[in-house]
Amino acid sequence: MHVLTTMSITLLLLTGVLGCSESRKTQDPSQVPSATPLLDTTGPTTAVELEQDSRLWLEDVEGEDALNWVREQNLRTTTRLQNDDRYAPLMAAAQSLYESDDRIPYGDFYGGFVWNFWQDNTHTHGLWRRTTLTSYLTETPQWEVIIDLDALAEKEAINWVWRGADCLAPQYDRCLVTLSKGGSDAAVRREFSLSQRQFVQNGFETPEAKGGIAWIDKDTVLVALATDTANTTDSGYPSVIYRWSRGTELTTAEVVLQGTRQDVGLWPMRFEDRDGSVHMLAAQSHTFYESTYWHLPFSGEAKILPIPAKTSIETLYRGELIFKLAEDWQRADASQIHPAGALVSINLARFIATGEIAAVNTLYVPSPTESIGSVAATKSRLIATLDNNVIGGILTFRFNNDQWSSKTLPVPDNLTISLSSANRWEDIAFVNAEGFLTPDTLFLANTAEATMQPIKTIPERFDTSGLTVEQIKTQSPDGTVIPYFVVRHKNAPLNGTTPTLLYAYGGFQVSMRPRYSGSLGKLWLENGGAYVLANIRGGGEFGPAWHQAGLKTQRQRIYDDLIAVAEDLSVQGLASSEHLAVYGGSNGGLLTGVMYTQRPDLWRAVISAVPLLDMLRYDKLLAGASWVGEYGDPEDPLEGAFLRSISPYHNVSATQEYPEIYLYTSTKDDRVHPGHARKMSHLLSDLGHDYLYFENIDGGHAAAANLSEYARRDAMLYVFLMQKLMPQQSQD
Question: What counts of helices (H) and strands (E) characterise the chain?
Answer without folding.
Answer: 14, 39
